[in-house]
Amino acid sequence: MTRSFGFTLSATDGRARTGRIDTPRGEIRTPAFMPVGTAATVKAMMPENVRATGADILLGNTYHLMLRPGSDRVARLGGLHKFMNWERPILTDSGGFQVMSLAGLRKLTEEGVKFKSHIDGSVHNLTPERSMEIQAELGSDIVMCFDECPALPADEKRVAESMRLSMRWAQRSRDAFGDRPGHALFGIMQGGLSPELREESAEALRGIGFDGYAIGGLAVGEGQEAMFDVLDYAPGLLPEDQPRYLMGVGKPDDLVGGVKRGVDMFDCVLPSRSGRTGQAFTRRGVVNIKNARHQDDPRPLDESCDCPCCRNYSRAYLHHVMRAKEIISSMLMTWHNLHYYQVLMSEMREAISAGRFDTWEAGFHAERAQGDIEPL
Ligand SMILES: [Zn+2]
After folding, report:
1. Burial tier of 288 (Cβ tally within 10 Å: 0-12, 13-18, 19+)
2. Which of 67, 88, 109, 352 could be 18's S-S partner, Cβ–Cβ 3.0 to 4.6 Å?
3. What is the pLDDT of residues 53-90, one digit of tens each?
């Protein structure tokens, strides 16, 4: 564990970038998509299968893990990597976002957030210092600053106050993180849809200094057009020689638009969660496998996909197991979706390296515009 954390850009094409993040637990090829392993598991998938889809790194949720099974317990059991049998890099969020979205009865102060667990109603305190402690106990490779994020739309005064509080918490997170060789701490830019607030936030974060920078406060109800408007300038406010991470995004075309605008890392529950409810992402758009049109269809979800689901199972079978609520339906659909997302990232990395991102992007949109294959 002597190798340190580092980021190397290998090619750019327009604002799109490709490169790699080095960590003591292995390399992360960028642009990267991180599957979400909320409760120390990517639901319905064995860790080795997640790796087989091409994932270099997983995301774990501080809020969920602090409540159950508890970060102190995970630490006693050897840390999150050992606990969940994933030896490659893990990024953990700070818990802030999920306290706001999931916890009952919460009280926000300068110090932090006091909240009631959505599981058993027990009362907890989360502060920048406590979040750093929990993420260290989990053994996270990339630690996120504790921040606060208002849902959009919100008035500018509320967004400004929240952003400034998050910047004070960013400094406290930096101080509490300390010196941990091989582990990285990322700052999180806030500021809603305001260029002035985004600039102020970026300046505050650059002043503190981090190993990477996230663009937070998007994908919270503003819509794709407003998100892309922010991404037209926000990545450019952050240091060029460090990774940029767009949190909680997104749909396949969100990822393409994010990469085009200079984002290096993404995470989202969409491919796994949608898989469990019967939605598959393919080159030709979204397929709802529960639809009756698939019940006699012997063809795979996607002829061009080489994942185990598409190689071995028909739409008719997937339709049947999904309707029958068989566990294998979640396994197969999740596998296909995570595979599709990783192929998408891999194609974008290659296109950037080859200097043909625009051509690749045109092909991506053209194929989706065809819609799903014709019914038999
Ligand atoms: Zn597939």
Report:
1. middle
2. 352
3. 999 999 999 999 999 999 999 999 999 999 999 999 99
Instruction: Give me the CATH topology for the region 6-274.
Output: TIM Barrel (3.20.20)
SS3 47: helix
* Count, residues in the chain: 376
Q: Are 262 and 250 in contact (CB under 8 A)?
A: no
Q: What are the tens digits of pLDDT across the range 257-303?
A: 999 999 999 999 999 999 999 999 999 999 999 999 999 999 999 99
Active site residue 141: no
The closest of 169, 162, 165 to 187, measured between CA atoms, is 169
**Strand 212-215 vs strand 244-246: parallel, antiparallel, or unpaired?**
parallel
Catalytic residue (choose from 93, 211, 264, 302): 93
Known catalytic residue at 93: yes
Long-range contacts: 70-77, Cβ < 8 Å, 24+?
Answer: 71/133, 71/134, 71/135, 71/137, 71/138, 72/137, 74/40, 74/137, 74/138, 74/139, 75/137, 75/138, 75/139
* Separation of CA 258 and ligand 1 centre (Å): 23
| pTM given for the model | 0.97
How are the residues of the chain apportioned to helix, strand and coil, as percentages rounded to the nearest 5?
A: 45, 20, 40
307: CA distance to ligand 1 center in Å?
4
Per-residue tokens: 33: 């998509």
